[in-house]
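W.,

You were right to be curious about this one. When I first looked at the sequence I had no strong expectations either way, so I just let the prediction run and decided to look at it fresh. Below is the sequence, 231 residues in total, followed by the output.
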Amino acid sequence: MAGSKILIVEDDPNLMAILKYNLLKEGYSLVIAVDGAQAVEIARREKPDLILLDVMLPVLSGFEVCRILRKGMSVPIMMLTAKTEEVDKIVGLEIGADDYMTKPFSMRELLARSRAMLRRAGMAGTQQADEPTLLKIGELEIDAGRHRALCRGLSLDITPKEFDLLLFLARNKGFVFSREQLLEKVWGYSYAGGTRTVDVHIRWLRKKVETDPAHPKYLLTVRGTGYKLEG
């Protein structure tokens, strides 16, 4: 979405220059931060539509920045990491990042994902006439209008992307979706070589929704196919 404001948080001047060139070429408005503390300040002041957030930053790490911003902002966050350890990616998603990309990454893919995340964020407030605002499935309640979910009467502390995933599955209760389909429907982009993001979000949702995450009642795995929501 040309004209959207993107905050780039990156301390590598070479990568920053490449990101700026390509994003400006796409018509985006940019704000820049080179350390974690600056990122928090600028994000709160500028209210960007998307944040591209490096993990390894001076002052505050990208994980710390994400954790702080998630306490009061629902802006889409894409983590950029040079680390290959799966635990680092999982931590980023656990604290509220919507997705991650591992360096070196394809600029074409980053642009495609950025467009998709901005498009999904822009659609977040829209409601189809035939889609219910409030869904109740067993002890689970999902309020699309207020963007909140409850289970057993307690409000769930879930990230924006976890909410999107839960809402989509609830609106399609009983239907099985592959990881690739969920990436397309919830994240807004086609399969690009890795679906680990979906598995991690399902895992964390189960910890928040299920009484016994090891034996889920709502978020079910259909072996060899994907996931569905029952109840």
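Here's what jumped out at me. The helical segments are 13-25, 36-46, 62-69, 86-94, 107-123, 160-171, 179-187, 196-209. And, maybe more interesting for your project: The two ends are 37 Å apart (CA to CA).

Coffee later to discuss?

I.
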